[in-house]
Every structure is written in structure tokens, then in C-alpha cells.
């Protein structure tokens, strides 16, 4: 993820301050040095780096820690506040009727972002429409139409038309029933004058409420000039940073935010339609420093459980808190977890599990975990309904039969049964919290208090991690 190296290196440096009651100038300088190194490697503009590091150093040396606060926590709070100030506020995006125009170079991810944003607005109760005006890139229309279909939102484009401005006008007319219009414009390999002229003409035709600049997280130092040109041409109210699921540095995108005096609107975190997050600076920096992000986690959990319940009309997640927790329930919960996104992202959102713990895990640890969940499904496919309903009654002869039928081994079957017991124990803890009512806020608080829990990292000691 963006600036991930900063979070990793800072956590190591701050750990060296543990136990200290007072900070020396050398201690502060070590923290500032790590910040400078990581931000410069992430392609953040030098002037921004120096401004941030000077502010952190001044505050750390001159401000007195609040009573009862350790030197480490004092520096952590200062770094947190200054990094939040660096990334800025979240772009204002009211949940009301509006037109949004996307700008950016070819390959920045505009078409994918248009569909993802439309999907996001649809989940907020609005009716969005994507209008594809790119007549330059071969396949742009087909890609946009397919992505809009996956997002289950309205779409307009004309593969035979040559005038993008006319397409934009007709698009607004044909999708007039939509609440939110997202206009996807053409990109180029560089900021040619004809690209700027075209975007300006489309802007005059659709009169957008806000223009968002879409930037690949790997853009690097070139983002500064790109952002300046777009800002001078159409004005930029917000930035969407895409492709944060890879090894992209992301600092160039933050530089662009500063250059346009704008803010970050969304983060693209993967290839699926649902892999988009509304940018929240506090949660973003909190995750970066290993402090979790319960707000984003709660939103993903609730959305995933609701979608899983929609597909399985006979299953209500609250039922798990009322009666017996079966393997059928466990399978539905696994499906819901899959909908929440990559496990490494989810881990980052759980206080006590992301950050430092993730630094200690092998690079493929989360891939192994997702593979484990798939293999659990193979095992459950080979079970009878009676075994799924009463897993505690499964004996050795049944374990042998299930292992053969699923093409796995007896050890994996036992592991699944043990995992079920752990999750059942966790569910019973929640049963007394609300007489069968799943209160997500209380669940998240208990999860935060339990942290890794017994038995290693997991959701209260009973999760699939």
C-alpha cells in the first residue's frame, strides 16, 4: 500500500523508544531521519518532506508530553497528527444529485474508477450512471460497458460516434433519471494540448459539480506537472489514487494533491468493483502506523454480511447469535469474509493485528490463509447435511471418508473442526452482549480489546486468520 515502507520503518524506530520517559535530540533525529528516507523513496516532493520533518522535530523537542504519556506515545501522536495534516482532508462528496468528471492520463485507471465510484454511490442509496466519452482508446467503450454491468449501474456510450462532447451531452439526456453522473474522459500517453482542449470542451458541455484527477499510485515525480496542467485547465477538486494493491509508492500522488491544493477522494485497492475506499485521513494514517481502522472495518463487515445474506435468503447472520453455530454458518461467514477484500487489508484495519504483526509475517502469509479457506470449502463439500449441522458428532471413520472425498488429508479435516470450535466459542461470547442482536459497534470494541486473543492472531482468538 501507499507509503507502506514508511509505516514499517517508523514502527521499528518508535519501538526503540519504548520505556523511555524523556526524549533526547538524538531520539527525535532518528525518527525524523526514517520519515525523510521513507517519504523520499516514496517519491514525495522534497519540499513537502522537509516541511513535515521540521514540524515533527520542533514539536517533539518543544512540546511537553501530557501527564502519564510515554515518550514513545508522545512522538507517535505527533507523527500521526502531522501525517494526517500532510495527506489533508477527504474530498467533499455529498450524497446528493451531482455530476463528476474524471480526468487523467491513459492507463491511470479512469474507466475502472468510474465504475467503482458508481458502485460506491449505489451502495449509499443513490442511482448512478457512467457516461463513457473516450473515442480515442480502442476498446474503451467495451471496457466501460462491461465494468458498468458488473457494478450494476446505468451506462451510456456510443462506439460509433466520433465527437466526445456530443456523446457527453447525449449521455446526460439519456441518463437523466440518474442521481449521480460520472463522466469518464479520454486519456493520452502524455499531456498533449488536444487532450486538454477536449476535456475543457466536455467540461463546458456537462458543467460538472466537481472534477476528480485519477492518478496511478506509481506515477512518481511526474505527478506534479500533470496535476499542475489539469488544475490550470479545468480545476481539480479531488484526487483518486488507484492501484494501491501492488508495490506502488504513492508519494507522487500525494505531491499532486498538494500541487493542486485539493484533497483525496477515493483509494483504489484492487481489481474488483468493490475494491474502492472513501479516503478517510485519520483511518488511513492510523492503519499506516499499525493502529487499525475500525470505522472502515465495520463498514466492510456490515456490507459483506448484508450481501451474503441477500444471496442466501434463508440465512440471517443474527441467527448465529441465537442458537447453535453450525458449519453451514461458518461457511456463510467465510463467504462474507471473502467479500470484505484481501486479508492483508483486513488485518491492517484490526487494532493490534496490522502494522507490527504484519511486518513479522512472510510475504505470502495472507495468500496461504486464503488458500486455507478454499481448502476448508473442499472439505465441507464432502460432508453430509447432518455432519454440517452437528460437526461435534463427527468421528474418526467419518474424518477418513471426508478426507478421501475432498482430496485433502485427515489433518486438514481436524483443523477445520478445531477452527469451528474456536469460532463457536467466540460466537457464544457475543451471545451475551445483546440477546441475539448483532451490535457491530460493540463487536468491534470487543475485537479491539481482545486484539490477537488466545491462539495467535485472529478475530478475538476465534477468527479465520
Kindly describe this structure.
The chain is an alpha/beta fold and 465 residues long. It contains 20 helices and eight strands. The chain has an eight-stranded mixed sheet with strand order 3-2-4-1-5-6-7-8, sandwiched between helices. Helix 3 packs antiparallel against helix 4 and helix 5 runs parallel beside helix 6.
Structural class: alpha/beta
**Structural Rg:** 25 Å
Give the SSE order as H and E letters. HHHHEHEHEHEHEHEHEEHHHHHHHHHH
Mean pLDDT: 78
Largest sheet: 8 strands, mixed
Number of strands: 8
Q: What characteristic shape results from the CA principal axes?
A: flat
Head-to-tail CA distance between termini: 20 Å
Low-confidence stretches: 352-357, 433-441, 447-465
Strand content: 5-15%
Strand order, main sheet: write it out. 3-2-4-1-5-6-7-8
The number of helical elements comes to 20
Amino acid at each position: 500500500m501507499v507509503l507502506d515502507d514508511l509505516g514499517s520503518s517508523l514502527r521499528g524506530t518508535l519501538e526503540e523508544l519504548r520505556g523511555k520517559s524523556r526524549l533526547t535530540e538524538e531520539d527525535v533525529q532518528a525518527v525524523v531521519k526514517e520519515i525523510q528516507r521513507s517519504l523520499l523513496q516514496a517519491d514525495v516532493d522534497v519540499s513537502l518532506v522537509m516541511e513535515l520533518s521540521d514540524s515533527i522535530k520542533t514539536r517533539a523537542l518543544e512540546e511537553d508530553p501530557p501527564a502519564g504519556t510515554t515518550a514513545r506515545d508522545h512522538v507517535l501522536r505527533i507523527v500521526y497528527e502531522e501525517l494526517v495534516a500532510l495527506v489533508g482532508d477527504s474530498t467533499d462528496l455529498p450524497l446528493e444529485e451531482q455530476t463528476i468528471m474524471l480526468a487523467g492520463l491513459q492507463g491511470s485507471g479512469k474507466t475502472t474508477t468510474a465504475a467503482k465510484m458508481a458502485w460506491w454511490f449505489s451502495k449509499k442509496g443513490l442511482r448512478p450512471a457512467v457516461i463513457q466519452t473516450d473515442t480515442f482508446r480502442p476498446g474503451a467503450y467495451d471496457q466501460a460497458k462491461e465494468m458498468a454491468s458488473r457494478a450494476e449501474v446505468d451506462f451510456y456510450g456510443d462506439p460509433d460516434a466520433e465527437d466526445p462532447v456530443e456523446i457527453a451531452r447525449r449521455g446526460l439526456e439519456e441518463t437523466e433519471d440518474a442521481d449521480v453522473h460520472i463522466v469518464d474522459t479520454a486519456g493520452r500517453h502524455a499531456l498533449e494540448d488536444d487532450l486538454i482542449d477536449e476535456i475543457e470542451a466536455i467540461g463546458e458541455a456537462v458543467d460538472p459539480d466537481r472534477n476528480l484527477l485519477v492518478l496511478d499510485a506509481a506515477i512518481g515525480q511526474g505527478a506534479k506537472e500533470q496535476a499542475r496542467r489539469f488544475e490550470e485547465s479545468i480545476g481539480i477538486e479531488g484526487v483518486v489514487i488507484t492501484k494501491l494493491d501492488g508495490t506502488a509508492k504513492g508519494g507522487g500522488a500525494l505531491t499532486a494533491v498538494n500541487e493542486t491544493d485539493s484533497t483525496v477522494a477515493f483509494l483504489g485497492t484492487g481489481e474488483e468493483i468493490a475494491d474502492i475506499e472513501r479516503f478517510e485521513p485519520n483511518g488511513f494514517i492510523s492503519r499506516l502506523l499499525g493502529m487499525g481502522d475500525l470505522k472502515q472495518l465495520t463498514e466492510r463487515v456490515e456490507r459483506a454480511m448484508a450481501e451474503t445474506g441477500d444471496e442466501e435468503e434463508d440465512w440471517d447472520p443474527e441467527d448465529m447469535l441465537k442458537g447453535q453455530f453450525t458449519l453451514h454458518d461458518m461457511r456463510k461467514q467465510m463467504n462474507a469474509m471473502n467479500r470484505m477484500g484481501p486479508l492483508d487489508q483486513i488485518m491492517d484495519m484490526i487494532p493490534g493485528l496490522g502494522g507490527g504483526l504484519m511486518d513479522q509475517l512472510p510475504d505470502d502469509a495472507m495468500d496461504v490463509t486464503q488458500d486455507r479457506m478454499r481448502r476448508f470449502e473442499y472439505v465441507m463439500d464432502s460432508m453430509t447435511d447432518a455432519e454440517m449441522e452437528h460437526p461435534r458428532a463427527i468421528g474418526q471413520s467419518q474424518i477418513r471418508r471426508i478426507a478421501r472425498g475432498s482430496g485433502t488429508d485427515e489433518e486438514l479435516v481436524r483443523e477445520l473442526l478445531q477452527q469451528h470450535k474456536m469460532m463457536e466459542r467466540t460466537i457464544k461470547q457475543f451471545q451475551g452482549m445483546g440477546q441475539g442482536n448483532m451490535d457491530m459497534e460493540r463487536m468491534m470494541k470487543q475485537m479491539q480489546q481482545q486484539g490477537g486473543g488466545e491462539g495467535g492472531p485472529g478475530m478475538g482468538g476465534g477468527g479465520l486468520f
